[in-house]
Amino acid sequence: MKQHLIFDLDGTLIDSAPSILHCFDLAFTSTNTPLIVPLTHDVIGPPLMETLKRLSGSEDVTLLNSLAAAFKQHYDTTGYQQSVVFEGIATMLQQLQEQGYKLYIATNKRFYPTEKIMAHLGWDRFFRGVYALDYFQPALKSKAEMIGQVVAEHGLSVADCLYIGDRLEDGQSADANRMDFVLVSWGYAGDVAQCKSQWHRCAQVAVLPGLVATL
To answer: How far apart are CA 24 and CA 70, in angstroms?
Structure first.
């Protein structure tokens, strides 16, 4: 039986796509930078600087820093408050906690807005730890590293852990740590077709606790 459940955030627990895409649009507009990639849901997920490179088609550090500053200004003040919790998530988290599972967050989102979102939603009570790449100093380079750090920081056994996310990267990061993985498809679900044979799939929030109990 798994005891420790590590969750991705965007596309798994919350739908922050509309607010993130709006803030990207404001950042590019305010800096007069042309977008070379459409602002669609598939740009949500990777770290901020990686996404800005993709959207701008540029490696220019000055430009990317300018875009990042503009994005942060919008998202960190009001944008994060527009995040929408997927239906049934709060009830599901409460149920898992009451059943004795220990819950954690491991997200590519920056730590500062992640912390603000947790407080805004009143979710601090659910999670024993909330982690982002830039939570660590120096910042980690991948979600796989982050999951490994969560395991190490809490002295966990990988066999007792489960990672839950909605992206191909999430599953690959779990695999890199030899950790079981559940791919959920109620969020952005862009990578469901690429689900690996060893991964578990879950299409409904209410079904997740029952699935976890079988693993």
So the answer is: 8
- For the chain, what's the residue count? 215
CA angle 100, 113, 182 (to 5 degrees): 40
Domain range 17-81, its CATH number among 1.10.10, 1.25.40, 1.10.150, 1.10.246: 1.10.150
pLDDT of residue 212: 97
163: part of which helix (H) or strand (E)? strand 161-165
Q: What local confidence, expressed as pLDDT, does residue 42 receive?
A: 81
Measured distance CA(170)–CA(126) in Å, rounded: 21
Is residue 63 classed as helix, strand or coil in its secondary structure? Answer: helix
Output the pTM of the full model: 0.91
For residue 126, give the nearest of 90, 153, 159 by alpha carbon: 90
- Provide the residue type at 144 as one letter: A
Q: What is the mean pLDDT for each group of 10 consecutive residues in the chain (215 residues)?
A: 95 92 95 94 86 96 96 94 95 97 96 96 96 96 97 97 94 97 84 83 96 96
Question: How confident is the model at residue 191, as a pLDDT?
Answer: 66
Name the residue with tokens 């901020």.
Answer: 48
Q: Which residues contact 215 (CB under 8 A, 6 or more apart)?
A: 1, 2, 162, 180, 200
Q: Nearest 5°: CA angle at 115, between 122 and 1?
A: 70
